[in-house]
Amino acid sequence: MASEHIRFLIIGGGIAGLSTAWQxxxxxxxxxxxxxxxxxHLASHSTAVNAAxxxxxxxxxxxxxxxxxxxxxxxxxxxxxxETPLVDAFGLLLTAGADRAEELAAxxxxxxxxxxxxxxxxxxxxxxxxxxxxxxxxxxxxxFPEEGRIDIGALVxxxxxxxxxxxxxxxRGVRVERLMEEHxxxxxxxxxxxxxxxxxxCVLAAGGWAGDLGAxxxxxxxxxxxxxxxxxxxxxxxxxxxxxxxxxxxxxxEGEFYCRPEAGGLLLCACDITDVDxxxxxxxxxxxxxxxxxxxxYLPELRDARAAHFWCGVRTFAEDGRFVIGSDPDVExxxxxxxxxxxxxxxxxxxxxxxxxxxxxxREDRALMAALSPARLTKPELG
Length: 383
Fold this sequence. Notes:
Layout (H helix, E strand, L loop, with lengths): L5 E6 L3 H12 L6 E5 L23 H15 L11 E2 L3 E5 L4 H9 L10 E4 H7 L9 E5 L4 E2 L1 H14 L3 E4 L3 E7 L2 E7 L4 E9 L5 H6 L8 E10 L11 E5 L6 E7 L2 E5 L4 E2 L9 H14 L8 E11 L6 E4 L6 E5 L5 H17 L5 H7 L2 H4 L5
Parallel strand pairs: 1-2, 1-11, 2-8, 4-13, 11-19
Antiparallel strand pairs: 3-7, 4-6, 5-6, 9-10, 10-11, 12-15, 12-16, 12-17, 13-14, 14-15, 18-19
Helix pairs in contact: 1-5, 1-8, 2-8
């Protein structure tokens, strides 16, 4: 069955697709936009299983810029976007041992000075006073009082409601079999049901599945789906619910570790990363032991805490770690909103804005769009 012709067909109903749909609706393109999601529920994969942490600072200055702008949206969303606050701002503390203190300091120094009032630099003694329960070897730290936990449910609901009210058609349970080409241009998708949906531009916002769909029509862009595990402990009577998010950058041997309050217990992560097939992966019991080992070392008062929940999710990256937003340089009619890694929730509104402006030609942030363009990753190497 052929469908009505539309301008923008967004493939993927996670945070990337929903934020893009919402921003397109704000630009008046809602009635000519359709979003399709393979599952029966929107945002049921990576969006639903992430750590929900608002952390704006990143290694890459471009990513930090996106994070700071995204954080501002989360703190001050447009009127009517959400009935509840999008952020529980109980604070975030980034800490580092001697091996990585200078590295993190360089990240901070690369920030626009206009954001300097948003954080405070701490020495080792100040860190100990703020988080006396943490036993890691710390040298320096940075305190971000306005950051904390994101309400993912409210964020997804806001994008979804706004997109629908702006005229975007949202269809669930529509699984794409492949992108369709005619005369070297992507013209729509063929679904596993046999239905064909045609559009002027197909927007790949399919997370871990985006790379294979693009490769099927000759795109040179390659993305890497990876797995990360999270654990939540059972409720503990001696756990202070006012604890901040703590993100620790240890030695190369220690790696990273973070924790935050969750449901009376603690959410814990050993910052593992493993390449996976997004259709075939499961939890790894070895990582569960790794989380328990790190937690026992860094949080000795809670070393006897029991695990209440243990799960994993997919985080998809481009080769250089930056997001991929823009038109495919080799395949006409194909636009990418992918490779959001672990920062999609924080940067969601900004990702959607850049994508919508790129799709409609309203490119106000040309430097950012160039930094995120798929073309940066598909240029032939000079030999």
